[in-house]
What we know:
The protein is mainly alpha-helical. The protein is about 75% helix and about 5% strand. InterPro entries: SOI/HabA-like.
Amino acid sequence: MTPESLSAPERARILAPAAALFALGLVIGLIFTFEAIGHVAVWPLIPALEFDMPGTEAAWRRTHLGALMNALAMIAFAAAGSGIRLGARARQVYIWSVCITGWGNSLGFLVGALFGVRGLAFGAPWTNSLNYLLFLIAALTAFVQAWLLWQGARAQRHATAA
Length: 162
Protein backbone atom coordinates (compact mmCIF):
# COMPACT_ATOMS: atom_id res chain seq x y z
CA MET A 1 0.00 0.00 0.00
CA THR A 2 1.28 3.45 -0.92
CA PRO A 3 1.98 5.81 1.98
CA GLU A 4 -0.46 8.73 2.15
CA SER A 5 -1.02 11.84 4.23
CA LEU A 6 -3.67 11.72 6.90
CA SER A 7 -7.05 12.44 5.33
CA ALA A 8 -9.39 15.07 6.74
CA PRO A 9 -11.49 12.41 8.55
CA GLU A 10 -8.31 10.88 10.01
CA ARG A 11 -7.11 14.27 11.24
CA ALA A 12 -10.58 14.84 12.73
CA ARG A 13 -10.09 11.65 14.78
CA ILE A 14 -7.32 13.57 16.56
CA LEU A 15 -8.98 16.99 16.53
CA ALA A 16 -12.24 15.91 18.21
CA PRO A 17 -10.51 14.44 21.30
CA ALA A 18 -8.14 17.44 21.29
CA ALA A 19 -11.10 19.81 21.43
CA ALA A 20 -12.63 17.83 24.31
CA LEU A 21 -9.30 17.92 26.15
CA PHE A 22 -8.99 21.67 25.57
CA ALA A 23 -12.49 22.15 27.03
CA LEU A 24 -11.53 20.00 30.02
CA GLY A 25 -8.43 22.18 30.46
CA LEU A 26 -10.65 25.26 30.59
CA VAL A 27 -12.88 23.67 33.25
CA ILE A 28 -9.78 22.69 35.22
CA GLY A 29 -8.73 26.34 34.93
CA LEU A 30 -11.86 27.26 36.88
CA ILE A 31 -10.93 24.75 39.58
CA PHE A 32 -7.42 26.24 39.64
CA THR A 33 -8.94 29.71 40.06
CA PHE A 34 -11.19 28.53 42.89
CA GLU A 35 -8.20 26.94 44.62
CA ALA A 36 -6.19 30.15 44.19
CA ILE A 37 -8.90 32.40 45.67
CA GLY A 38 -9.87 29.90 48.36
CA HIS A 39 -13.55 29.51 47.49
CA VAL A 40 -15.97 28.90 44.63
CA ALA A 41 -17.34 32.15 43.21
CA VAL A 42 -18.73 33.15 39.83
CA TRP A 43 -20.36 36.49 40.54
CA PRO A 44 -23.19 37.25 39.71
CA LEU A 45 -24.12 33.68 38.76
CA ILE A 46 -22.91 31.86 41.87
CA PRO A 47 -22.34 33.47 45.25
CA ALA A 48 -19.13 32.71 47.13
CA LEU A 49 -19.24 29.13 48.41
CA GLU A 50 -16.70 27.84 50.88
CA PHE A 51 -15.36 24.56 49.54
CA ASP A 52 -12.12 22.82 50.37
CA MET A 53 -10.67 21.83 46.99
CA PRO A 54 -8.53 18.69 46.92
CA GLY A 55 -4.90 19.18 45.94
CA THR A 56 -2.74 22.27 45.93
CA GLU A 57 -2.77 25.42 43.87
CA ALA A 58 0.47 24.31 42.17
CA ALA A 59 -1.01 20.91 41.28
CA TRP A 60 -4.11 22.53 39.74
CA ARG A 61 -1.91 24.97 37.80
CA ARG A 62 0.07 22.01 36.38
CA THR A 63 -3.15 20.18 35.57
CA HIS A 64 -4.73 23.20 33.86
CA LEU A 65 -1.66 24.04 31.79
CA GLY A 66 -0.90 20.37 31.12
CA ALA A 67 -4.33 19.73 29.63
CA LEU A 68 -4.17 22.87 27.47
CA MET A 69 -0.61 22.12 26.28
CA ASN A 70 -1.46 18.49 25.49
CA ALA A 71 -4.56 19.59 23.55
CA LEU A 72 -2.46 22.07 21.56
CA ALA A 73 0.15 19.38 20.90
CA MET A 74 -2.60 17.08 19.62
CA ILE A 75 -3.81 19.84 17.30
CA ALA A 76 -0.24 20.33 16.05
CA PHE A 77 0.20 16.60 15.40
CA ALA A 78 -3.15 16.52 13.57
CA ALA A 79 -2.07 19.46 11.39
CA ALA A 80 1.28 17.81 10.73
CA GLY A 81 -0.61 14.76 9.49
CA SER A 82 -1.38 16.54 6.23
CA GLY A 83 2.35 16.94 5.51
CA ILE A 84 3.57 13.41 6.19
CA ARG A 85 3.15 10.09 4.36
CA LEU A 86 2.40 6.88 6.23
CA GLY A 87 0.89 3.52 5.36
CA ALA A 88 -2.67 2.74 6.48
CA ARG A 89 -1.64 0.85 9.63
CA ALA A 90 0.98 3.45 10.58
CA ARG A 91 -1.63 6.22 10.19
CA GLN A 92 -3.92 4.40 12.63
CA VAL A 93 -1.07 3.88 15.12
CA TYR A 94 -0.16 7.58 14.75
CA ILE A 95 -3.76 8.66 15.48
CA TRP A 96 -4.05 6.40 18.52
CA SER A 97 -0.60 7.36 19.82
CA VAL A 98 -1.35 11.08 19.63
CA CYS A 99 -4.68 10.66 21.44
CA ILE A 100 -3.31 8.32 24.11
CA THR A 101 -0.33 10.60 24.75
CA GLY A 102 -2.46 13.73 25.12
CA TRP A 103 -5.17 12.21 27.25
CA GLY A 104 -2.89 9.90 29.27
CA ASN A 105 -0.57 12.72 30.22
CA SER A 106 -3.48 15.03 31.08
CA LEU A 107 -5.28 12.40 33.14
CA GLY A 108 -2.01 11.76 34.97
CA PHE A 109 -1.91 15.42 35.96
CA LEU A 110 -5.57 15.26 37.03
CA VAL A 111 -5.06 12.17 39.20
CA GLY A 112 -2.07 13.91 40.77
CA ALA A 113 -4.09 17.02 41.60
CA LEU A 114 -7.09 15.12 42.94
CA PHE A 115 -5.16 12.71 45.14
CA GLY A 116 -1.98 14.59 45.98
CA VAL A 117 0.35 12.13 44.25
CA ARG A 118 3.11 12.65 41.69
CA GLY A 119 3.43 9.25 40.00
CA LEU A 120 7.21 9.50 39.77
CA ALA A 121 7.63 5.83 40.75
CA PHE A 122 5.31 2.83 40.89
CA GLY A 123 4.05 2.15 44.41
CA ALA A 124 1.52 2.85 47.12
CA PRO A 125 -0.97 4.35 47.31
CA TRP A 126 -2.86 2.90 44.37
CA THR A 127 -3.59 6.40 43.04
CA ASN A 128 0.15 7.00 42.78
CA SER A 129 0.56 3.76 40.79
CA LEU A 130 -2.33 4.79 38.52
CA ASN A 131 -0.69 8.17 38.03
CA TYR A 132 2.64 6.50 37.23
CA LEU A 133 1.03 4.15 34.69
CA LEU A 134 -0.81 7.00 32.95
CA PHE A 135 2.45 8.95 32.59
CA LEU A 136 4.37 5.82 31.52
CA ILE A 137 1.86 4.93 28.79
CA ALA A 138 1.81 8.55 27.62
CA ALA A 139 5.61 8.62 27.47
CA LEU A 140 5.77 5.40 25.45
CA THR A 141 3.14 6.54 22.96
CA ALA A 142 4.87 9.94 22.70
CA PHE A 143 7.98 8.18 21.40
CA VAL A 144 5.85 6.17 18.95
CA GLN A 145 4.12 9.28 17.57
CA ALA A 146 7.42 11.18 17.33
CA TRP A 147 9.03 8.28 15.44
CA LEU A 148 6.05 8.01 13.08
CA LEU A 149 6.09 11.77 12.49
CA TRP A 150 9.79 11.52 11.60
CA GLN A 151 9.20 8.50 9.33
CA GLY A 152 6.25 10.22 7.66
CA ALA A 153 8.25 13.40 7.09
CA ARG A 154 11.11 11.39 5.56
CA ALA A 155 8.66 9.58 3.26
CA GLN A 156 7.12 12.91 2.21
CA ARG A 157 10.55 14.39 1.53
CA HIS A 158 11.57 11.39 -0.60
CA ALA A 159 8.25 11.41 -2.48
CA THR A 160 8.56 15.09 -3.40
CA ALA A 161 12.25 14.71 -4.32
CA ALA A 162 11.48 11.89 -6.77
